[in-house]
Design brief:
Blueprint: E1 10-14, H1 18-29, E2 35-39, H2 43-56, E3 65-68, H3 71-74, E4 79-82, H4 98-112, E5 120-123, H5 128-139, E6 146-148, H6 152-166, E7 173-174, E8 177-178, E9 186-187, E10 193-194, E11 197-198, H7 199-202, H8 211-229, H9 234-248, E12 253-255, E13 258-261, E14 266-269, E15 272-275, E16 278-282, H10 289-307
Parallel strand pairs: 1-2, 1-4, 2-3, 4-5, 5-6
Antiparallel strand pairs: 7-10, 8-9, 10-11, 12-15, 13-14, 15-16
The chain binds 1,4-dihydronicotinamide adenine dinucleotide (NAI) and pyruvic acid.
Keywords: NAD, Oxidoreductase
Pfam family, one: Ldh_1_C
InterPro entries: L-lactate/malate_DH (IPR001557), L-lactate_DH (IPR011304), Lactate/malate_DH_C (IPR022383), Lactate/malate_DH_N (IPR001236), Lactate_DH/Glyco_Ohase_4_C (IPR015955), NAD(P)-bd_dom_sf (IPR036291)
Length: 308
């Protein structure tokens, strides 16, 4: 898509803080929507973000207009990206945010109703898998239309780490983190490949891969960033914009997003086909026995948070 082609779609970003604004910026740099609405009860911050982001549209993207919007208007957009909520302070886990962010989600959804029938609600606020589940309950939208960014960000981090070790482009690596966007996540090592060749075979012979260390480094990356700058915003900015693009242009990319798992009774990430209808289908991964166990464990952890 040329940056100046006519774009007619609308994306609302509910929560115009660090993450919301960075997602908007990514959507300006990689044009997806004709209009981006920022929604936030902190009006001064929201309006300042609108002005700053509007300045960014002068450089190449004249198709996207950024403006302040209401929750009601957000409910009518093609995609609603939900970033409203508290973020972790140093030492806090994502699940520590559940009480505060469930209340914010519930009131924001009430304010947005009634939703356009084909809107896609994309959850980003944490704990993202738990909030995706609650958003499905509160919104009454079809479950395939309510998805979370899930382990897409963790998978991007994993690919970056593997790419540096293997000395190849991250785009040539196929590797997924699955399960919870949190402590119980796991790497689907049995499906990892480089250039279509199984990881073990494709790695240079002088590289000894410590899988546990790589999985831990991947999992801990958010905490390490938050420890030093207080927020993670650029990674999720790119990831959320990619999901929006796959939805808006009906690209049907396979993305590890959080979505409803009928057999597990929770929302968590398994790679899925993502298009204009949201999750089109979950990919049958053929997990190894160990990975199946890790998936069950992740679902159990999430159920405990849902039922607490
Ligand atoms: N899923 C992921 O991979 C990632 C998730 N996050 C999560 O994103 C969330 C947002 O993080 P930041 O932007 O850094 O926080 P922030 O504090 O900078 O911004 C949050 C914004 O939400 C707004 N807000 C509160 N209630 C609202 C409502 N009812 N309607 C609209 N806006 C409302 C606040 O006024 C604030 O401006 C956090 O929960 C954080 O943990 C952050 C990075 C990655
Ligand atoms: C904050 C968060 O969830 C992340 O950066 O992974």
């Amino acid at each position: 898509m040329s940056p100046n082609s006519k774009l007619t779609s609308t994306i609302a970003i509910v929560g115009a803080g660090d993450v919301g604004a960075t997602i908007a910026y990514s959507l300006i740099m990689n044009p997806v929507a004709g209009e981006i609405l920022l929604v936030d009860p902190k009006e001064e911050v929201r309006d300042a973000q609108v002005q700053d982001l509007s300045d960014a549209t002068f450089h190449g993207n004249t198709s996207t207009r950024v403006r302040a919007g209401t929750h009601k208007e957000a409910g009518q957009c093609d995609i609603i990206v939900m970033t409203a909520g508290a973020k972790q302070k140093k030492g806090e886990s994502r699940t520590d945010l559940v009480g505060r962010n469930k209340a914010i989600l519930s009131s924001a959804i009430d304010d947005m109703k009634p939703f356009a029938s084909d809107t896609i609600l994309l959850l980003v606020a944490n704990p993202v898998d738990v909030l995706t589940y609650f958003a499905q309950q509160f919104s009454d939208l079809p479950k395939n239309q309510v998805i979370g960014s899930g382990t897409f960000l963790d998978s991007a981090r994993l690919r970056g780490i593997l790419a540096a070790k293997a000395e190849v482009a991250a785009s040539s690596i196929e590797a997924f983190v699955c399960g919870e966007h949190g402590e119980s996540q796991f790497v689907a090592w049995s499906k990892a490949s480089i250039g279509g060749v199984p990881l073990e075979l494709a790695l240079p012979s002088n590289i000894k891969l410590d899988k546990n260390a790589v999985a831990e480094e991947t999992k801990n990356k958010a905490n390490n960033i938050i420890e030093n700058k207080g927020v993670t915003n650029y990674g999720i900015g790119g990831v959320a914009a990619s999901i929006c693009k796959s939805i808006m242009f009906d690209e049907k990319n396979i993305l590890p997003v959080s979505h409803w798992q009928e057999d597990l009774g929770v929302c968590l990430s398994i790679p899925a086909v993502v298009g204009r209808k949201g999750v089109v289908r979950t990919v049958e991964m053929g997990f190894s026995g160990e990975e199946k166990e890790a998936l069950q464990k992740s679902a159990k952890t999430l159920k405990e948070v849902l039922e607490a």
